[in-house]
Each structure stands twice: as structure tokens, then as C-alpha cells.
Specification:
Layout: E1 2-6, H1 13-24, E2 31-36, H2 43-51, E3 55-60, H3 82-95, E4 103-108, E5 112-113, H4 115-121, E6 127-129, E7 132-135, E8 138-146, E9 149-154, E10 170-173, H5 174-179, H6 194-199, E11 209-210, H7 212-215, E12 220-221, H8 231-238
Parallel strand pairs: 1-2, 1-4, 2-3, 6-11
Antiparallel strand pairs: 4-10, 5-12, 6-10, 7-8, 8-9
Length: 249
């Protein structure tokens, strides 16, 4: 199982979803849970999922107004996608049985994933972990491993967090998530503590399972598409000559 949260209104959304869905087509036994941050599920996403060839569930849940970023806010000011990730967890608790063996991974549509990552996480017993490239102001962040056990973390930003890890750097066994029914992401978590708010209720650092060559191989990257610059489009719009809105981008 993979969950993916979406923020509406991003011009690169369709392109990134197509890239991600075509990666997922190569992953065996995958069910894609897509959660839109919106009051209604969009036609664009619904059509893309229907045409993807993937097993999927399409959900939506708008972020409460008090937690929404304003246009002028930096994207780090408030936690994003918290309620949507929790909605994905809720769906699993309502639709899957404790006896079912699967792995839950919180994927974002603007990351780049090696197919090898999904082979690595498939063997998760509780919580498996690995490095993430191009994140935290570093070339990579990663768990530090000695004798097959995680003993610390290589990170520069807020290293004293309980689990100083990125969302892309861990996967959780479905059975563990279902057995701990109160486990969820905390929307009021301090900046950088969102991952810790879930993991602290599931596992200790000593129980983490290092993957990807004892956390020495990077298999996921925060590449993030650049926000398109539409200066010429804006100029044409002022002249009443904007591009055809009937053509979906």
C-alpha cells in the first residue's frame, strides 16, 4: 500500500502524478491510496487514476482553514498533508484486517523513487528505514547503523528530534499500524516533528529495520518540480489571448 497526498491548484500536478503512476506500474502487488486536499475529488485526478492501470482508492479531505497556508506564507510555516495522511490511515483501519500482511509508505508526488526502494520495503516487519537524497539542506540524510542496528542519524537540521527523519525515509508494517489504533500524525506537532509524532507511538529507535545496504544507498530523492514561470501567459491573458483553457495541462 502507498498513500499519496495532493495539493490542488499546482500546475505541475498532472505531470508529477503521471510520472509517479508510471513508476508504480512496475511495482508488484501495489494499492495506491490518493488523498486530495480538497472539499471534492477533482476530475483531473479521477480521470488520471482511472486510466493508470493501477489498483487505487481516491479520497479527499480539506485541510482545516486555520491550518491552511496563505499565498504569501513559506511552505514550511505550517504542517502540510497531515489530515490527508491520517485520512489514508483511517481508510486502512476501516478496510483492512489485522491478519493482512502489507506495508504502508507515505509517498509524495514530487519525489523520485528507485524501483529498488519498493523491493527493500517489502520485507518490513515493523518500521524499515533508509537514506533520503537532497533533503534537509544536505546531499542526503540517513540513519546511522552499527552491527545491523540503527544507533543514530546523520542530519543537520534539528538533530535532537526523536526521529530526525524525512517522510520519504520510512515504511510501516500494516499490522503494526492497525494494532496501534491511536497512532496518527499530530497536526499540532512542532515543525520537523511530524514524522516523530507517528513513529513514537509505533517503535523505538532500536527496533528500526535498516534497509538499502545498511542505509548506505540512496533510493529516493526530494527532486521537487520547479514552479512554472508563466510570465508570457500572464501578458497574453491581459490582452485576452491566453492559452486555450479547454486543454488540460
Amino acid at each position: 500500500f502507498l498513500s499519496c497526498l495532493l495539493f490542488p491548484g499546482r500546475l505541475v500536478q498532472k505531470a508529477e502524478l503521471i510520472r509517479l503512476s508510471q513508476t508504480f506500474l512496475h511495482v508488484k502487488k501495489l494499492h495506491w491510496i490518493v488523498v486530495e486536499d480538497a472539499a471534492n475529488r477533482s476530475k483531473l485526478v479521477a480521470d488520471l487514476l482511472a486510466q493508470s492501470g493501477l489498483s487505487y482508492t481516491h479520497l479527499n479531505l480539506p485541510t482545516p482553514t486555520i491550518y491552511k497556508l496563505r499565498e504569501s506564507d513559506p511552505n514550511w510555516l505550517k504542517p502540510r498533508g497531515v489530515e490527508q495522511r491520517n485520512r489514508g490511515i483511517q481508510w486502512l483501519r476501516e478496510n483492512r484486517e489485522l491478519s493482512e500482511e502489507a506495508v504502508v509508505y507515505f509517498a509524495d508526488d514530487d519525489n523520485t523513487y528507485s524501483l529498488k526502494l519498493f523491493d527493500e520495503m517489502r520485507w518490513t516487519k515493523r518500521v524499515s528505514v533508509w537514506p533520503v537524497g537532497l533533503v534537509g539542506g544536505l546531499r542526503f540524510e540517513r540513519p546511522l547503523v552499527e552491527n545491523g542496528k540503527v544507533v543514530g542519524f546523520y542530519t543537520a537540521w534539528k538533530p535532537n528530534r526523536p526521529f530526525p527523519m524525512d517522510m520519504a525515509g520510512f515504511a510501516v508494517a500494516l499490522q503494526l499500524l492497525l494494532a496501534n489504533r491511536e497512532a496518527r500524525f499530530d497536526i499540532n506537532a512542532e515543525r520537523g516533528y511530524l514524522e516523530s509524532s507517528l513513529l513514537q507511538s509505533l517503535v523505538s529507535i532500536e527496533e528500526l529495520e535498516p534497509r538499502a545496504n545498511n542505509c548506505n544507498t540512496v533510493l529516493v530523492w526530494h527532486t521537487r518540480a520547479e514552479k512554472p514561470k508563466l510570465k508570457q501567459e500572464d501578458l497574453l491573458l491581459k490582452e485576452g489571448k491566453g492559452s486555450d483553457v479547454r486543454i488540460e495541462v
